[in-house]
Sequence to fold (543 residues):
Amino acid sequence: MKRGIRKVVIAGGGTAGWVAACALTHQFRELLEVTLVESEQIGTVGVGESTIPTIRTFHRLLGIDEREFMSSVAASFKLSISFENWLRPGQRYFHPFGLTGLGSWACEFHHFWLDSLRRGMTSELGDYCLETVASRVDRFSLPGHQVGGAQQWSTRWGNQAMAPERLEVNYAYHFDAGLYAAYMRERAERQGLVRVEGKIRQVRQHPETGYVEALVLEDGTVLEGDLFIDCTGGRAVLSEQALGTGYEDWNHWLPSNRAVALQTEADGPAVPYTRAIAHEAGWHWKIALQHRIGCGIVFSDAHMSDDEATAKLLAENPARPLRDPWIIPFRTGRRRKAWNKNVVALGLASGFIEPLESTSIHLTLSGVARLLKLFPAEGIDESMVQRYNDISRAEMEHVRDFIILHYHLNQRDEPMWQQVRHMDLPDDLAHRIGMFRDRAHASQGEDELFRLDSWTHCMLGQGVVPKAHHPLTRALPDDAMQRLFDGIRKPIERAVAAMPSHQQFLDSYCKAPPSAWELMYERARAHARVTGKVAGVGGGLAT
Fold:
């Protein structure tokens, strides 16, 4: 007989634990009894600083006010990712979050752009994307929000050869993961969540079914539950140590397996994009928050040592450090079942895909949202568990393939880059690259995270030169082609010219009080006093 779910126990805090707690208490309120257990003595990775636009949808689900949230977590805006030196040293392109140009139902815009190059017209694909153009000059604004005497920028494209579209900005956030977890914790506790301080000593399971029945803490406290959420990071105390779920390793496709992270004082105005800078054995991230810079080196320990990575990081980030660099080992792959018996793994407990495209926090939010949709209030059904696991697997494999693309498509000379350039690819990724190389065809599945525009910008940015493109583009005369392009590009240029700088907009819209910054530093100092080492206060490597 199935057992209804009335008590949910979340093992572990950080970003994953507190996001799950906030969502469950917000959606189910008095229908569920939600308890979270965590220990201040157990450090978390604490590098989560960069997100993708899906976080805004999740926040709307929870009724989060954007300006209050951004001020509380010292957030900045993110329009894109700047990929530097990935194809070869000295080359740069943006992966923007917004739409690019206007196409037809049969033929996307990049086909028209490719045909314009054939005709001798010169431009860059990014010229037709608001987010790319604004990123180039470090500008940002939202319709309806002016800074000082700045001109209100238009919210429409204007007259074009094709149907008009709204000129809206699509963006995500950079924020401090420790402040984000604290923000979610405050909301969850206000909504009725019970937090218990302590370390898990034993996972008590049913002798026949293997279902988890309770967590026993070191002080003898017993936390019984019907459903357990494992947010214990890479240790996966419930999913792996207790249930032996198994792990699928992807290191043969994604060789980076370590990172060294650093936080420094701000070295200038905040830019509205994440920088991902390739180096000889991996890549270097740099993320501007309101109060500091988050930076780090991701690398393969087969091609670079910890000491070499740390020295490189410090040399390339000369601003005053706010704490010592720290090493983060990781293992790219996924838990073979995200949901096993009555345990759902979230965050690092469910697996990890290296942080290149800022997907770690998204995957946590997606897992929480999926659990809400399939929540087993009347008892766990294996059909729903399988559905959850199938979607989770497909989502992670899709993200994995998109990140492999950046590594594989390179023209660099170093050993690691040669290794990934010549490796065998997952079948679906090989097919996608082949379609784009043959006919400039990019595809997007109904439930896939990365849109067609994302694949297009990254394929072109990583040096894929299509042999041909859609023949429909040849039917458009030169003058009509030019009107189409001008009708897209010029409104974007006017809109960006009317925007304030990103830093000016932040200061006007959501400036964080000094108390928010001090909260993060005090939490780090308190953890150091307890454990004797400096550790993060966030919830996952998620740049």
